Structure formats: structure tokens, C-alpha cells
Amino acid sequence: MNVLLVFAHPDGRSLNAALRDVTVETLKAEGHAVRVSDLYAQGWKSEVDRADFPSLPLDARLKVPSASHDGYAAGALTADVLAEQEKLLWADAVILQFPLWWFHMPAILKGWVDRVFAYGLAYGVGEHSDRRWGDRYGEGTFRGKRAMLVVTAGGWAEHYSARGVNVPIEDLLFPTHHGMLFYAGFEVLPPFVAYQADRLTEEGFEKVAGQLRTRMRSLFATPPIAYRRQNGGDYAIPKLRAAAGAGAAGRPGLCAARRARSRAGPPRRTGPRPARRLRPGRRLRLRASGPARRSGRARRLRTAPRPRAPGRPRCARPAAGRRPAGSPASRCGGRRWRRRS
Ligand code: FAD
Asked: Is 2-243 in CATH node 3.40.50.360?
């Protein structure tokens, strides 16, 4: 099979570069053909501008979608973009590898997507009708190809876990997974993330490299993330809201894009939340309705006082806004919970 690795790190001796080499060696050992787009080494131009559309008349306004459409249709985009598009069409799987910078990919890689994913190639494909809303979200030019992110992050795995301060990594990567890759038709595999990357020792590197080798060996066997297909019946056209009763219905936002049963891992909890446990002595503010709400009044109750151990100082109140025990903590769950105390 053919694999394209798009690599975005400025230093050839970095941890990322070492992991890139592990990926390439492993894939080649498995018999795959591998091509690498090393964006910094190539001097990739990341910004979209007029120079990207040489056939655009000098006096014409630059409307990027239509210029992209016309340039792609005429084969008149710049040579660097055409070369990357050819690699994408060649590949059976595409890997984007980058260090997590400000919760996202480095700008040079975002610029690669902006320029290479042209109108007519990655978006604006297919029929728009009362049955279909274009070929996207699991359909389109890249349908049948796989895509995967390989990411290094300074934060800990716990920081990116279900209750972590940084929010779950799969929520953070959702714009790339769902909004870029799945949108353009790729089947998206669960990401490979190396945490605490800045503090990695040689020993730690061997462990991470071993895990990466395992993922690369199963690149074409790993089940993709079970996103809903736009035209597969889960979404009502043209409003494109998940139809009632479709799997995880009732859960908003990011969760709604995934089928209830993910082949990639355990499903997120979709049932009713467990009853809220109140700590003794905690004040509970009830949401008011009607005139009381408009006047800002709310009822306050206090649960039975917390028994204090003799000789121990009075405990501080729990931090305001702390989630009740057992409540969902992903961004989806976080939005559902209303702070009341
Ligand atoms: P390097 O600096 O190259 O190496 C990291 C460590 O790996 C070094 O200590 C090195 O000795 C060691 N190492 C062990 N074995 C090897 C080997 N064989 N080869 C090379 N090195 C090895 N983190 C987050 O979690 N969230 C963020 O939002 C975030 N934003 C950031 C924004 C910016 C602008 C920057 C600069 C960093 C940010 N970070 C963030 C941290 C960033 O994700 C890490 O710095 C990055 O992932 C580390 O990868 P690297 O390849 O640059 O590591």
C-alpha cells in the first residue's frame, strides 16, 4: 500500500524527526511504499494568497473558493500544490505528524491543508439535492483512504483524559479529524499521541517508539473512528441535524457526530446522568423560573451540616464550579452541566 507522511517540525534532530524515522522504517519493513512531505525542509508556503492562483486576472477580486475551484479544474494551481495533490491521490493512507502547538497543529501544516485541499478536490464535491448534500463527511475524493494523526504533546495523558483540564484529546483533535479529514472523505483512525514529550528520556523514547511501531503495523487493520456519514441516513437533509433516535441522539456537539457504538473504543455514556450527590454542608442554589428568574432571585438550600472531626480546622468550601461526582467531564458533558452551587 502507499503511505504519505506529512511532517511538520522545524528541527531534523527533534523527537518528532526521530518518531518520523520510526514510522517510515516500520512501514517500509511491512512492505508499504512511503513518501514524506517534510514541510519545513521543503520551505512550504503556508499562507493562501494571490500568488496561489496564477491564472486569476490581475484586476479580479480574489475570492478564494472560486479561484481554488477554477484553478483546480484547469490544473492551473502552483507546482508545489499540484505536487502535494498528486501525492494525496497516490496514497492509500495519509499520516499527519506534528507537535501540538497551542492545542492545534503548527501553522505550516494548517497552511498545507488550506492550500492543498482545493475546491473540487477536498470540498465542493458531489451533488447537492434534497437527497444528498455533496460528497463529504465520509464521502468524496478521498473515500476509501485512511488518515491518522501522530502527535507529540507537552502535557500529560491525564491532562487530556476525560476529566482532564485540557479536555480529552479526541475532542481537541476533532476539528482536524472530523472537519478536515473525515469531511474530505478519509476514514480517520484513532490518533497516536506521545504525552510529556518535552521530558522524554532515551528509555521513554524506546517505549513510545515501540507503541508507534505497533500502530504502524496495524495501519490498514485498525478500525476507524465511527463518525456518522452525512448521507447515510443519520442526518436529515437539508438541516443536517442528526435524526431523532440516531444512536447518541440527545448528546450535543462533538458527541453527536459519533455513532453511539464506536468501533474504535468504548462508547461514551449516553444515558441519564447519575443522581447528583450532595456533600453534607454544601449549599445548593436552585435555578429560579418565571418572575423569580427575571428578578435574579433563587432559592438556596443547605444540606445537613458536615460533621467536623474534633480538633480539626473547619474545612474550606469545595471550589465553586467543581463538577459533581460522576458527571461527564468531556467538552460535551461539560456543556450539559449547569453550575448551580
Ligand atoms: P524535542 O524538543 O525535540 O524533544 C523532546 C525531548 O525528547 C527532549 O528532551 C529530548 O532529549 C527527548 N528525546 C528522547 N529521545 C529522543 C530521540 N531519540 N530524539 C530526539 N529527542 C529525544 N504542549 C501541549 O501539550 N499543549 C499545547 O497546546 C502546547 N502548545 C505549544 C505551543 C508551542 C508554540 C510550543 C513551542 C510548544 C507547545 N507545547 C504544547 C509543547 C509541545 O507539544 C512539545 O514541545 C512538543 O510536542 C515536543 O516535541 P519535539 O519534537 O519538539 O520535542
From this structure: yes
